[in-house]
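Example record for the data management plan.
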Amino acid sequence: MRPARDHPTTGGLHAFAPSPLSRRRFLGYGSAGAAAVLLGTGAWNAAGAMPLASGAGNPFTLGVASGDPLPGGVVLWTRLAPKPYEADGFGGMPRTPVRVEYEVSLDERFRAVVRRGSVVATPELGHSVHPEVHGLAPDHEYFYRFRTGGEISPVGRTRTAPVAWSSPRELNFAFASCQNWEAGHFTAYDHMAAEDLDLVVHLGDYLYESGVTGVGRGTPVGPQFKGETFDLARYRLQYALYKSEAPLMAAHAAFPWIHVNDDHEVENNWAGDISQIDKEPDQDRAVFRQRRAEAFQAMYEHLPYRIAQLPKGPDARLHRRLSYGTLADFTMLDTRQYRDDQPCGDGQSANCTERFDENRTLLGSEQRNWLLDGFSRSRARWQILGNQAPMGQTDTDAGEATNVHLDPWDGYVADRDRVLAAAQDRGVRNLVVITGDRHQNYAWDLKRDFTDPDSPTVASEFVGTSITSGGNGADMTPAGENLLKANPHMKFFNSQRGYVRVNVNRQRWRSDFRVVPFVNTPGAPISTRASYVVEDRRPGVQSA
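Corresponding structural encoding:
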Protein backbone atom coordinates (compact mmCIF):
# COMPACT_ATOMS: atom_id res chain seq x y z
CA MET A 1 0.00 0.00 0.00
CA ARG A 2 1.08 3.59 -0.48
CA PRO A 3 2.47 5.07 2.75
CA ALA A 4 -0.04 7.09 4.77
CA ARG A 5 0.47 10.81 4.90
CA ASP A 6 1.32 12.51 8.17
CA HIS A 7 -1.83 12.95 10.20
CA PRO A 8 -2.54 16.64 10.92
CA THR A 9 -3.34 18.01 14.32
CA THR A 10 -6.98 18.18 15.31
CA GLY A 11 -7.11 21.83 14.33
CA GLY A 12 -6.02 20.94 10.81
CA LEU A 13 -8.56 18.19 10.18
CA HIS A 14 -10.71 18.67 7.12
CA ALA A 15 -14.09 17.87 8.67
CA PHE A 16 -17.35 17.40 6.85
CA ALA A 17 -20.50 17.83 8.94
CA PRO A 18 -23.11 15.09 8.67
CA SER A 19 -26.04 15.78 6.41
CA PRO A 20 -28.92 17.22 8.42
CA LEU A 21 -31.85 14.87 8.98
CA SER A 22 -34.99 16.81 8.17
CA ARG A 23 -38.03 16.60 10.46
CA ARG A 24 -40.10 15.23 7.58
CA ARG A 25 -37.59 12.48 6.83
CA PHE A 26 -37.24 11.69 10.54
CA LEU A 27 -40.98 11.31 11.02
CA GLY A 28 -41.23 9.22 7.87
CA TYR A 29 -39.41 6.34 9.54
CA GLY A 30 -42.02 5.93 12.29
CA SER A 31 -41.09 6.25 15.96
CA ALA A 32 -39.29 2.91 16.43
CA GLY A 33 -37.65 3.11 13.03
CA ALA A 34 -36.40 6.65 13.59
CA ALA A 35 -34.86 5.74 16.93
CA ALA A 36 -33.18 2.68 15.41
CA VAL A 37 -31.70 4.78 12.62
CA LEU A 38 -30.34 7.50 14.89
CA LEU A 39 -28.89 5.04 17.38
CA GLY A 40 -27.32 2.87 14.69
CA THR A 41 -25.59 5.77 12.94
CA GLY A 42 -24.34 7.47 16.09
CA ALA A 43 -26.58 10.52 15.72
CA TRP A 44 -27.98 9.78 19.20
CA ASN A 45 -25.93 8.98 22.28
CA ALA A 46 -25.59 5.26 22.92
CA ALA A 47 -24.40 5.43 26.52
CA GLY A 48 -27.69 4.17 27.96
CA ALA A 49 -27.67 0.85 26.08
CA MET A 50 -26.03 -2.28 27.45
CA PRO A 51 -23.32 -4.24 25.61
CA LEU A 52 -23.99 -7.78 24.46
CA ALA A 53 -24.00 -10.23 27.34
CA SER A 54 -20.72 -12.11 27.66
CA GLY A 55 -20.78 -15.72 26.58
CA ALA A 56 -23.23 -15.07 23.73
CA GLY A 57 -20.64 -16.18 21.19
CA ASN A 58 -18.77 -14.29 18.48
CA PRO A 59 -21.16 -11.59 17.23
CA PHE A 60 -18.90 -10.56 14.31
CA THR A 61 -19.44 -13.61 12.11
CA LEU A 62 -20.32 -11.40 9.13
CA GLY A 63 -17.17 -9.31 9.30
CA VAL A 64 -16.73 -5.55 9.03
CA ALA A 65 -16.84 -3.04 6.20
CA SER A 66 -16.49 0.63 5.31
CA GLY A 67 -17.91 2.60 2.45
CA ASP A 68 -18.67 5.79 0.50
CA PRO A 69 -15.40 7.56 1.39
CA LEU A 70 -15.41 11.37 1.67
CA PRO A 71 -12.44 13.68 2.29
CA GLY A 72 -13.35 13.92 5.97
CA GLY A 73 -14.64 10.49 6.78
CA VAL A 74 -16.27 7.17 5.95
CA VAL A 75 -19.20 5.09 7.07
CA LEU A 76 -18.34 1.93 9.02
CA TRP A 77 -20.47 -1.21 9.18
CA THR A 78 -21.00 -4.41 11.04
CA ARG A 79 -23.98 -6.58 11.99
CA LEU A 80 -24.12 -8.58 15.19
CA ALA A 81 -25.05 -12.19 14.42
CA PRO A 82 -23.57 -14.92 16.66
CA LYS A 83 -25.87 -17.44 14.93
CA PRO A 84 -26.25 -15.95 11.44
CA TYR A 85 -28.27 -18.82 9.96
CA GLU A 86 -31.14 -18.76 12.45
CA ALA A 87 -34.36 -19.08 10.45
CA ASP A 88 -36.04 -16.09 12.11
CA GLY A 89 -33.46 -13.72 10.60
CA PHE A 90 -32.32 -12.26 13.95
CA GLY A 91 -28.92 -13.95 13.86
CA GLY A 92 -29.15 -15.38 17.37
CA MET A 93 -29.46 -11.92 18.92
CA PRO A 94 -31.85 -10.95 21.72
CA ARG A 95 -34.77 -8.64 20.82
CA THR A 96 -33.13 -5.81 22.73
CA PRO A 97 -30.79 -2.95 21.78
CA VAL A 98 -27.07 -3.56 22.23
CA ARG A 99 -24.31 -0.97 22.58
CA VAL A 100 -21.40 -1.37 20.16
CA GLU A 101 -18.17 0.60 20.51
CA TYR A 102 -15.87 1.46 17.62
CA GLU A 103 -12.35 2.81 17.26
CA VAL A 104 -10.51 4.39 14.32
CA SER A 105 -6.73 4.43 14.41
CA LEU A 106 -3.72 5.39 12.34
CA ASP A 107 -2.21 1.94 12.90
CA GLU A 108 -3.60 -1.57 12.92
CA ARG A 109 -2.46 -2.20 16.51
CA PHE A 110 -4.56 0.79 17.68
CA ARG A 111 -1.75 2.64 19.43
CA ALA A 112 -2.77 5.90 17.71
CA VAL A 113 -6.56 6.04 18.02
CA VAL A 114 -8.02 9.22 16.49
CA ARG A 115 -11.75 8.52 16.92
CA ARG A 116 -13.80 6.55 19.44
CA GLY A 117 -17.53 6.27 19.72
CA SER A 118 -20.48 4.02 20.41
CA VAL A 119 -23.66 3.20 18.54
CA VAL A 120 -26.67 1.04 19.31
CA ALA A 121 -27.50 -2.09 17.34
CA THR A 122 -31.29 -2.48 17.39
CA PRO A 123 -33.46 -5.46 16.46
CA GLU A 124 -35.47 -3.19 14.14
CA LEU A 125 -32.43 -3.03 11.83
CA GLY A 126 -31.20 -6.58 12.40
CA HIS A 127 -28.61 -5.36 14.96
CA SER A 128 -26.64 -3.67 12.18
CA VAL A 129 -24.76 -0.42 12.80
CA HIS A 130 -23.57 2.27 10.39
CA PRO A 131 -21.53 4.86 12.30
CA GLU A 132 -20.57 7.78 10.09
CA VAL A 133 -17.12 8.90 11.20
CA HIS A 134 -16.21 12.54 10.57
CA GLY A 135 -13.20 14.73 11.16
CA LEU A 136 -10.63 12.45 9.53
CA ALA A 137 -7.75 13.62 7.36
CA PRO A 138 -8.26 13.57 3.57
CA ASP A 139 -6.54 10.96 1.40
CA HIS A 140 -5.44 8.99 4.42
CA GLU A 141 -5.36 5.33 5.47
CA TYR A 142 -7.07 4.29 8.72
CA PHE A 143 -7.85 1.11 10.63
CA TYR A 144 -11.04 0.41 12.53
CA ARG A 145 -12.67 -2.20 14.75
CA PHE A 146 -15.79 -2.80 16.85
CA ARG A 147 -16.25 -4.14 20.37
CA THR A 148 -19.19 -5.45 22.42
CA GLY A 149 -19.65 -7.91 25.28
CA GLY A 150 -15.92 -8.55 25.56
CA GLU A 151 -15.68 -9.53 21.88
CA ILE A 152 -13.54 -7.60 19.39
CA SER A 153 -14.21 -7.61 15.67
CA PRO A 154 -11.66 -8.25 12.94
CA VAL A 155 -9.70 -5.14 11.99
CA GLY A 156 -10.73 -3.30 8.85
CA ARG A 157 -8.70 -0.90 6.76
CA THR A 158 -10.19 2.08 4.99
CA ARG A 159 -9.12 5.24 3.19
CA THR A 160 -10.62 8.70 2.92
CA ALA A 161 -10.97 10.55 -0.37
CA PRO A 162 -8.78 13.50 -1.39
CA VAL A 163 -10.18 17.01 -0.92
CA ALA A 164 -12.36 18.27 -3.75
CA TRP A 165 -9.85 20.82 -5.09
CA SER A 166 -6.80 18.54 -5.00
CA SER A 167 -5.27 16.96 -8.09
CA PRO A 168 -4.33 13.36 -7.20
CA ARG A 169 -1.69 11.71 -9.34
CA GLU A 170 -3.67 8.48 -9.67
CA LEU A 171 -6.62 6.42 -8.51
CA ASN A 172 -6.59 2.64 -8.13
CA PHE A 173 -9.83 0.71 -7.76
CA ALA A 174 -11.55 -2.49 -8.77
CA PHE A 175 -15.12 -3.12 -9.82
CA ALA A 176 -17.13 -6.31 -9.53
CA SER A 177 -20.66 -7.67 -9.79
CA CYS A 178 -22.85 -10.77 -9.91
CA GLN A 179 -21.79 -13.09 -7.09
CA ASN A 180 -24.20 -16.02 -7.13
CA TRP A 181 -23.31 -18.12 -4.08
CA GLU A 182 -24.81 -21.27 -5.56
CA ALA A 183 -22.71 -20.93 -8.74
CA GLY A 184 -19.27 -21.16 -7.15
CA HIS A 185 -16.63 -19.96 -4.73
CA PHE A 186 -15.73 -16.30 -4.19
CA THR A 187 -12.01 -16.89 -4.77
CA ALA A 188 -11.66 -13.75 -6.88
CA TYR A 189 -12.21 -11.67 -3.75
CA ASP A 190 -9.16 -13.24 -2.07
CA HIS A 191 -7.08 -11.92 -4.95
CA MET A 192 -8.83 -8.55 -4.91
CA ALA A 193 -8.06 -8.17 -1.20
CA ALA A 194 -4.35 -8.53 -2.02
CA GLU A 195 -4.40 -5.74 -4.61
CA ASP A 196 -3.15 -2.18 -3.97
CA LEU A 197 -6.45 -0.32 -4.22
CA ASP A 198 -8.04 2.87 -2.94
CA LEU A 199 -11.58 1.51 -3.10
CA VAL A 200 -13.92 -1.08 -4.62
CA VAL A 201 -17.07 -0.42 -6.65
CA HIS A 202 -19.78 -3.09 -6.66
CA LEU A 203 -22.29 -2.76 -9.48
CA GLY A 204 -25.05 -5.02 -8.27
CA ASP A 205 -26.29 -8.58 -7.90
CA TYR A 206 -24.50 -8.74 -4.56
CA LEU A 207 -26.81 -11.63 -3.88
CA TYR A 208 -29.38 -13.68 -5.77
CA GLU A 209 -32.91 -14.19 -4.52
CA SER A 210 -33.25 -17.81 -5.62
CA GLY A 211 -33.14 -20.70 -3.20
CA VAL A 212 -29.85 -22.46 -2.55
CA THR A 213 -28.69 -25.94 -1.59
CA GLY A 214 -24.89 -25.67 -1.86
CA VAL A 215 -24.64 -29.24 -3.08
CA GLY A 216 -23.02 -28.32 -6.39
CA ARG A 217 -20.23 -26.32 -4.73
CA GLY A 218 -19.64 -28.93 -2.03
CA THR A 219 -21.00 -26.83 0.86
CA PRO A 220 -24.58 -27.96 1.52
CA VAL A 221 -26.84 -25.70 3.60
CA GLY A 222 -29.92 -26.19 5.74
CA PRO A 223 -33.56 -26.27 4.65
CA GLN A 224 -34.13 -22.64 5.68
CA PHE A 225 -32.33 -21.58 2.48
CA LYS A 226 -34.56 -23.50 0.09
CA GLY A 227 -37.14 -21.67 -1.97
CA GLU A 228 -37.09 -18.12 -3.35
CA THR A 229 -36.47 -15.15 -1.06
CA PHE A 230 -39.54 -13.00 -0.41
CA ASP A 231 -39.53 -11.49 3.10
CA LEU A 232 -37.18 -9.69 5.47
CA ALA A 233 -36.18 -12.73 7.51
CA ARG A 234 -35.29 -14.68 4.39
CA TYR A 235 -33.38 -11.78 2.79
CA ARG A 236 -31.39 -11.49 6.04
CA LEU A 237 -30.57 -15.18 5.83
CA GLN A 238 -29.46 -14.85 2.23
CA TYR A 239 -27.15 -11.96 3.07
CA ALA A 240 -25.78 -13.86 6.07
CA LEU A 241 -24.94 -16.83 3.83
CA TYR A 242 -23.16 -14.65 1.27
CA LYS A 243 -21.36 -12.46 3.79
CA SER A 244 -20.05 -15.49 5.70
CA GLU A 245 -17.75 -16.21 2.75
CA ALA A 246 -14.19 -15.52 3.92
CA PRO A 247 -12.95 -14.02 0.61
CA LEU A 248 -15.83 -11.50 0.56
CA MET A 249 -15.17 -10.56 4.18
CA ALA A 250 -11.48 -10.06 3.35
CA ALA A 251 -12.21 -7.72 0.45
CA HIS A 252 -14.65 -5.69 2.55
CA ALA A 253 -12.12 -5.42 5.38
CA ALA A 254 -9.35 -4.30 3.00
CA PHE A 255 -10.97 -1.32 1.25
CA PRO A 256 -13.95 1.04 1.38
CA TRP A 257 -16.73 -0.02 -0.99
CA ILE A 258 -19.22 1.92 -3.09
CA HIS A 259 -22.25 -0.24 -3.84
CA VAL A 260 -25.37 0.10 -5.93
CA ASN A 261 -27.88 -2.66 -6.54
CA ASP A 262 -29.09 -4.22 -9.77
CA ASP A 263 -32.09 -6.54 -9.97
CA HIS A 264 -31.29 -9.70 -7.99
CA GLU A 265 -31.05 -7.89 -4.66
CA VAL A 266 -34.85 -7.88 -5.03
CA GLU A 267 -35.93 -10.07 -7.98
CA ASN A 268 -34.77 -10.80 -11.51
CA ASN A 269 -35.50 -8.01 -14.02
CA TRP A 270 -37.83 -5.97 -11.83
CA ALA A 271 -38.74 -2.53 -13.17
CA GLY A 272 -40.04 0.23 -10.91
CA ASP A 273 -43.11 -1.17 -9.17
CA ILE A 274 -43.38 -4.11 -11.55
CA SER A 275 -42.30 -7.64 -10.77
CA GLN A 276 -40.92 -10.04 -13.33
CA ILE A 277 -43.74 -11.81 -15.17
CA ASP A 278 -44.38 -15.10 -13.33
CA LYS A 279 -47.06 -16.76 -11.21
CA GLU A 280 -45.93 -15.39 -7.84
CA PRO A 281 -48.13 -13.23 -5.57
CA ASP A 282 -46.00 -10.15 -6.24
CA GLN A 283 -47.64 -9.71 -9.63
CA ASP A 284 -49.86 -7.46 -7.50
CA ARG A 285 -47.91 -4.17 -7.40
CA ALA A 286 -48.75 -3.58 -3.75
CA VAL A 287 -47.34 -6.99 -2.86
CA PHE A 288 -44.23 -6.32 -4.92
CA ARG A 289 -43.66 -2.94 -3.24
CA GLN A 290 -43.76 -4.69 0.13
CA ARG A 291 -41.24 -7.24 -1.12
CA ARG A 292 -39.02 -4.44 -2.42
CA ALA A 293 -39.25 -2.62 0.93
CA GLU A 294 -38.09 -5.70 2.82
CA ALA A 295 -35.33 -6.41 0.28
CA PHE A 296 -34.11 -2.81 0.51
CA GLN A 297 -34.10 -2.91 4.31
CA ALA A 298 -32.01 -6.09 4.31
CA MET A 299 -29.65 -4.52 1.76
CA TYR A 300 -29.17 -1.49 4.02
CA GLU A 301 -28.63 -3.74 7.02
CA HIS A 302 -25.79 -5.62 5.33
CA LEU A 303 -23.84 -2.96 3.44
CA PRO A 304 -21.83 0.14 4.42
CA TYR A 305 -24.49 2.67 3.39
CA ARG A 306 -24.85 6.15 4.81
CA ILE A 307 -28.08 7.39 6.35
CA ALA A 308 -28.84 9.10 3.03
CA GLN A 309 -29.29 5.64 1.49
CA LEU A 310 -31.61 4.34 4.22
CA PRO A 311 -34.83 3.09 2.59
CA LYS A 312 -38.18 4.64 3.40
CA GLY A 313 -40.46 1.71 2.73
CA PRO A 314 -39.91 0.57 -0.89
CA ASP A 315 -38.00 3.73 -1.85
CA ALA A 316 -34.32 4.56 -1.40
CA ARG A 317 -32.03 7.27 -2.76
CA LEU A 318 -29.30 5.05 -4.18
CA HIS A 319 -28.01 7.27 -7.00
CA ARG A 320 -25.27 9.52 -5.69
CA ARG A 321 -21.99 11.14 -6.62
CA LEU A 322 -18.61 10.82 -4.92
CA SER A 323 -15.52 12.76 -5.94
CA TYR A 324 -11.86 11.80 -5.95
CA GLY A 325 -10.36 15.28 -6.05
CA THR A 326 -10.38 16.79 -9.52
CA LEU A 327 -9.12 13.53 -11.01
CA ALA A 328 -12.42 11.63 -11.05
CA ASP A 329 -16.09 11.70 -10.14
CA PHE A 330 -18.02 8.50 -9.44
CA THR A 331 -21.65 8.91 -10.45
CA MET A 332 -23.59 5.87 -9.27
CA LEU A 333 -26.75 5.29 -11.28
CA ASP A 334 -29.96 3.55 -10.24
CA THR A 335 -31.42 1.86 -13.31
CA ARG A 336 -34.16 -0.09 -11.49
CA GLN A 337 -36.38 2.11 -9.31
CA TYR A 338 -37.39 4.76 -11.83
CA ARG A 339 -37.56 2.87 -15.12
CA ASP A 340 -40.51 2.06 -17.31
CA ASP A 341 -41.35 -1.59 -17.80
CA GLN A 342 -39.18 -3.40 -20.34
CA PRO A 343 -40.54 -2.96 -23.89
CA CYS A 344 -42.25 -5.68 -25.87
CA GLY A 345 -42.58 -7.99 -22.87
CA ASP A 346 -38.83 -8.07 -22.06
CA GLY A 347 -36.51 -10.76 -23.42
CA GLN A 348 -34.76 -10.29 -26.74
CA SER A 349 -36.04 -8.91 -30.02
CA ALA A 350 -35.02 -7.86 -33.53
CA ASN A 351 -38.27 -6.04 -34.30
CA CYS A 352 -39.32 -4.24 -31.11
CA THR A 353 -39.99 -0.64 -32.19
CA GLU A 354 -41.20 0.27 -28.70
CA ARG A 355 -37.59 0.42 -27.53
CA PHE A 356 -37.11 3.61 -29.58
CA ASP A 357 -40.06 5.43 -27.95
CA GLU A 358 -38.89 8.93 -26.95
CA ASN A 359 -41.09 8.86 -23.85
CA ARG A 360 -39.62 5.69 -22.41
CA THR A 361 -37.01 6.04 -19.68
CA LEU A 362 -34.52 3.89 -17.82
CA LEU A 363 -33.39 6.58 -15.37
CA GLY A 364 -36.53 8.61 -14.80
CA SER A 365 -36.53 12.30 -15.64
CA GLU A 366 -35.40 13.51 -12.21
CA GLN A 367 -32.36 11.22 -12.03
CA ARG A 368 -31.48 11.93 -15.68
CA ASN A 369 -31.57 15.69 -15.10
CA TRP A 370 -29.40 15.22 -12.00
CA LEU A 371 -26.92 13.21 -14.09
CA LEU A 372 -26.76 15.73 -16.91
CA ASP A 373 -26.45 18.67 -14.51
CA GLY A 374 -23.48 16.85 -13.02
CA PHE A 375 -21.89 16.69 -16.47
CA SER A 376 -22.06 20.49 -16.65
CA ARG A 377 -20.90 21.22 -13.12
CA SER A 378 -18.13 18.71 -12.58
CA ARG A 379 -14.49 19.78 -12.71
CA ALA A 380 -13.23 16.20 -12.78
CA ARG A 381 -10.95 14.99 -15.55
CA TRP A 382 -12.65 11.57 -15.63
CA GLN A 383 -16.41 11.08 -15.33
CA ILE A 384 -17.08 7.51 -14.15
CA LEU A 385 -20.63 6.20 -14.41
CA GLY A 386 -21.35 3.25 -12.12
CA ASN A 387 -23.93 1.43 -14.23
CA GLN A 388 -25.74 -1.89 -13.89
CA ALA A 389 -26.54 -3.35 -17.34
CA PRO A 390 -24.56 -2.61 -20.55
CA MET A 391 -25.04 0.81 -22.11
CA GLY A 392 -23.46 -0.12 -25.44
CA GLN A 393 -25.54 -1.80 -28.12
CA THR A 394 -25.31 -5.60 -27.87
CA ASP A 395 -26.41 -7.00 -31.22
CA THR A 396 -26.55 -10.80 -31.19
CA ASP A 397 -27.18 -11.08 -34.95
CA ALA A 398 -24.09 -10.88 -37.15
CA GLY A 399 -26.34 -10.48 -40.21
CA GLU A 400 -28.61 -7.64 -41.30
CA ALA A 401 -30.94 -7.64 -38.29
CA THR A 402 -30.25 -5.93 -34.97
CA ASN A 403 -31.28 -8.36 -32.24
CA VAL A 404 -30.85 -7.00 -28.72
CA HIS A 405 -31.75 -7.67 -25.10
CA LEU A 406 -34.53 -5.39 -23.90
CA ASP A 407 -33.70 -5.10 -20.18
CA PRO A 408 -30.45 -3.05 -20.58
CA TRP A 409 -30.10 0.34 -22.28
CA ASP A 410 -30.86 -1.27 -25.65
CA GLY A 411 -34.48 -1.35 -24.49
CA TYR A 412 -34.40 2.38 -23.70
CA VAL A 413 -32.65 3.90 -26.69
CA ALA A 414 -33.89 7.48 -26.22
CA ASP A 415 -32.47 7.67 -22.69
CA ARG A 416 -29.12 6.32 -23.88
CA ASP A 417 -29.00 8.79 -26.75
CA ARG A 418 -29.84 11.71 -24.44
CA VAL A 419 -27.07 10.78 -21.99
CA LEU A 420 -24.37 10.22 -24.61
CA ALA A 421 -25.32 13.31 -26.61
CA ALA A 422 -25.24 15.43 -23.46
CA ALA A 423 -21.77 14.13 -22.59
CA GLN A 424 -20.48 15.39 -25.93
CA ASP A 425 -22.53 18.58 -26.08
CA ARG A 426 -21.68 19.63 -22.51
CA GLY A 427 -17.98 19.07 -23.00
CA VAL A 428 -17.37 16.11 -20.72
CA ARG A 429 -13.64 15.61 -20.98
CA ASN A 430 -13.61 11.82 -20.53
CA LEU A 431 -16.72 9.71 -19.94
CA VAL A 432 -16.10 6.10 -18.92
CA VAL A 433 -18.94 3.75 -18.04
CA ILE A 434 -18.25 0.76 -15.77
CA THR A 435 -20.86 -1.98 -15.90
CA GLY A 436 -21.76 -5.41 -14.54
CA ASP A 437 -24.73 -7.76 -15.15
CA ARG A 438 -23.58 -9.62 -18.25
CA HIS A 439 -21.21 -12.24 -16.70
CA GLN A 440 -18.77 -11.41 -19.50
CA ASN A 441 -15.88 -9.00 -20.03
CA TYR A 442 -16.20 -6.37 -22.76
CA ALA A 443 -14.18 -3.34 -23.81
CA TRP A 444 -16.03 -1.22 -26.35
CA ASP A 445 -16.75 2.24 -27.70
CA LEU A 446 -19.97 4.12 -27.02
CA LYS A 447 -21.49 5.82 -30.05
CA ARG A 448 -23.63 8.93 -29.97
CA ASP A 449 -26.18 7.09 -32.11
CA PHE A 450 -25.85 3.35 -32.66
CA THR A 451 -28.32 3.43 -35.56
CA ASP A 452 -25.87 5.59 -37.57
CA PRO A 453 -22.71 3.74 -38.72
CA ASP A 454 -20.91 7.08 -39.03
CA SER A 455 -21.84 8.28 -35.55
CA PRO A 456 -18.85 9.50 -33.52
CA THR A 457 -17.48 7.68 -30.49
CA VAL A 458 -18.26 9.87 -27.48
CA ALA A 459 -17.39 7.62 -24.52
CA SER A 460 -15.95 4.27 -23.47
CA GLU A 461 -17.45 1.35 -21.58
CA PHE A 462 -15.87 -1.51 -19.68
CA VAL A 463 -18.24 -4.35 -18.83
CA GLY A 464 -16.92 -6.55 -16.03
CA THR A 465 -17.62 -10.23 -15.69
CA SER A 466 -19.17 -11.95 -12.67
CA ILE A 467 -17.50 -13.16 -9.51
CA THR A 468 -19.22 -16.55 -9.84
CA SER A 469 -22.48 -16.26 -11.81
CA GLY A 470 -22.48 -18.51 -14.84
CA GLY A 471 -20.04 -21.04 -13.37
CA ASN A 472 -16.48 -21.56 -14.56
CA GLY A 473 -16.85 -19.81 -17.88
CA ALA A 474 -14.41 -19.83 -20.80
CA ASP A 475 -11.98 -17.49 -22.48
CA MET A 476 -13.87 -17.44 -25.79
CA THR A 477 -17.26 -18.91 -26.67
CA PRO A 478 -19.30 -19.16 -29.89
CA ALA A 479 -21.52 -16.41 -28.48
CA GLY A 480 -18.46 -14.22 -27.98
CA GLU A 481 -17.22 -14.79 -31.53
CA ASN A 482 -20.66 -13.82 -32.79
CA LEU A 483 -20.75 -10.65 -30.67
CA LEU A 484 -17.37 -9.53 -32.01
CA LYS A 485 -18.66 -9.98 -35.58
CA ALA A 486 -21.98 -8.25 -34.94
CA ASN A 487 -20.68 -5.27 -32.95
CA PRO A 488 -17.80 -3.38 -34.60
CA HIS A 489 -17.57 -1.11 -31.56
CA MET A 490 -16.61 -4.15 -29.42
CA LYS A 491 -12.84 -4.53 -29.08
CA PHE A 492 -12.60 -7.33 -26.50
CA PHE A 493 -14.66 -10.27 -25.23
CA ASN A 494 -13.99 -12.83 -22.51
CA SER A 495 -16.32 -15.09 -20.52
CA GLN A 496 -14.26 -16.14 -17.49
CA ARG A 497 -14.96 -15.12 -13.90
CA GLY A 498 -13.17 -12.34 -12.02
CA TYR A 499 -13.15 -8.56 -11.73
CA VAL A 500 -11.66 -5.47 -13.38
CA ARG A 501 -8.73 -3.59 -11.85
CA VAL A 502 -8.43 0.06 -12.86
CA ASN A 503 -5.60 2.57 -12.70
CA VAL A 504 -6.48 6.17 -13.61
CA ASN A 505 -4.02 9.02 -13.88
CA ARG A 506 -4.03 12.40 -15.59
CA GLN A 507 -3.00 11.01 -18.98
CA ARG A 508 -4.92 7.73 -19.32
CA TRP A 509 -7.26 5.11 -17.93
CA ARG A 510 -6.17 1.46 -17.80
CA SER A 511 -8.48 -1.52 -17.19
CA ASP A 512 -6.94 -4.89 -16.42
CA PHE A 513 -9.36 -7.82 -16.83
CA ARG A 514 -8.43 -10.09 -13.92
CA VAL A 515 -9.74 -13.65 -14.36
CA VAL A 516 -9.76 -16.99 -12.56
CA PRO A 517 -9.92 -20.30 -14.50
CA PHE A 518 -12.54 -21.95 -12.28
CA VAL A 519 -14.98 -21.28 -9.42
CA ASN A 520 -16.48 -24.74 -8.84
CA THR A 521 -13.72 -25.42 -6.31
CA PRO A 522 -11.74 -22.94 -4.17
CA GLY A 523 -8.13 -21.94 -4.69
CA ALA A 524 -8.09 -20.74 -8.31
CA PRO A 525 -5.11 -18.58 -9.36
CA ILE A 526 -5.58 -15.11 -10.85
CA SER A 527 -4.17 -13.67 -14.07
CA THR A 528 -4.63 -10.62 -16.25
CA ARG A 529 -6.35 -11.76 -19.43
CA ALA A 530 -6.11 -8.40 -21.24
CA SER A 531 -5.59 -4.70 -20.62
CA TYR A 532 -7.27 -1.80 -22.40
CA VAL A 533 -6.72 1.92 -22.08
CA VAL A 534 -8.52 5.19 -22.75
CA GLU A 535 -6.33 8.20 -23.43
CA ASP A 536 -7.17 11.62 -22.05
CA ARG A 537 -9.50 13.56 -24.40
CA ARG A 538 -9.66 10.61 -26.82
CA PRO A 539 -12.92 8.64 -26.37
CA GLY A 540 -12.80 4.96 -27.21
CA VAL A 541 -10.88 1.93 -25.96
CA GLN A 542 -7.49 0.75 -27.19
CA SER A 543 -5.44 -2.34 -26.43
CA ALA A 544 -2.69 -1.53 -23.93
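Summary line stored alongside the record: The CA atoms of residues 202 and 378 lie 23 Å apart.
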